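Regression check, D-serine case 478:
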Amino acid sequence: MSRNAESTAFRSALEVIRAVEPRVADAIGAELTDQRESLKLIASENYASPATLLAMGNWFSDKYAEGTVGRRFYAGCQNVDTVEALAAEHARELFGAAHAYVQPHSGIDANLVAFWAVLADRVESPALKKAQVRQVNDLTEADWFALRRELGNQRMLGMSLDAGGHLTHGFRPNISGKMFDQRSYGTDPATGLIDYDRVAEAAREFKPLILVGGYSAYPRKVNFRILREIADSVGATFMVDMAHFAGLVAGKVFTGDFDPVPHAHIVTTTTHKSLRGPRGGMVLCQPELADQVDRGCPMVLGGPLPHVMAAKAVALAEARRPDFADYAQRIVDNAQALADGLLRRGATLVTGGTDNHLVLIDVSGYGLTGRQAEQALLDSGIVTNRNSVPQDPNGAWYTSGIRIGTPALTTRGLGTAEMDQTAELIHTVLTQTTAGANADGTPSKAKYTLDADLADKISRQAADLLAPHPLYPAVDLT
Ligand code: DSN
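Current build output:
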């Protein structure tokens, strides 16, 4: 395929959009410029391929397809069946999974599908059995009451938010925290690492229905074999949310004990982070959960997004190519080079380093909150996000951490030498930023001072780092 084809495709698309609402076309063009010019270190973001992006912009978006492949509630779904079946096949082959469900629209949707599948499979509920054999309309009010009582208040044990767990693993601001009686396991205060003996102890005491593994801000490998043994010892279903590190599993960087797929009963993921696909979610599971998982729509999902399933099929096909394994390894090499560069310059990192795609800097050593550091870095052309550190005294809004990740810059082609230079830029900004004060003289958690000339200089240096690695080099919108 010629590089010209990509340019023509995106230029033509913008021309068509511009004829209707030029401001949207302008915003799409501006987003490309912004992404091209910023040093993107957000650990959960990436750059999908032109083929993946283009697979989403078409008439598949117009089709309703509730149901599953070959069993739809709408006529005319033969082409949706083709792309959904292809995406599921690529997912099964890529991850060695028995079953794949590619309809979830996002990570939270994938987790909701998984939670309800486990509840339906595991909870001893005479009312649910009735609901499954009878027509729903035949259930009495008393049956419904019993169903709510039996399914509600089940127990979930997941990683605590400040240790790197995710909101959807049973935390109060999310529906999972309202559905489940949740308890969390943290990390060892001295090392920052998961203490599996403590997890086992918590599981023995709490006896969860679901043990959740996975994280969004833990910079280390997780031993899923041990977590499965813990789940088995208390009769829990073991679920892993691999949204952040799915690309490292796909690329065979995480294998054996560190690959969740052979160990977990059910695995959820997003498709747009290290996996580098379209924005969406997916569930992989053991055969015994497949029927319940396939009821995701209508249980918790609306109609599937066929255009996004088409893009998932494209991205998963890309991830099955040999060069994806090389990409995945480079993500980790880059994260380790970034961590080493920061440590050598005196930064404090949670757990002292990384085994995966992300690094968590404890910025309290620089006298800053996460919020101050995030903004000062942004002023300097470096895009990151603030994140809690374990036992964070600044809470989840201001935080004491900055989470940085390498999937996106690795896609652009930056390597370990550039990671060391990136560490220098980050360290310079953080050492030159000073925390501000409120009007009454008390320390502010948001205000800061950073010399504007220095911020400009760092932005130019960041742009110099990116210049040899253009983003979407074949796409010329001028
Ligand atoms: N928002 C994603 C992240 O940044 O980790 C997870 O939901």
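Comparison notes: The mean pLDDT is 95. Residues 44, 107, 216 surround D-serine (CB under 6 Å). No diff flagged against the previous build.
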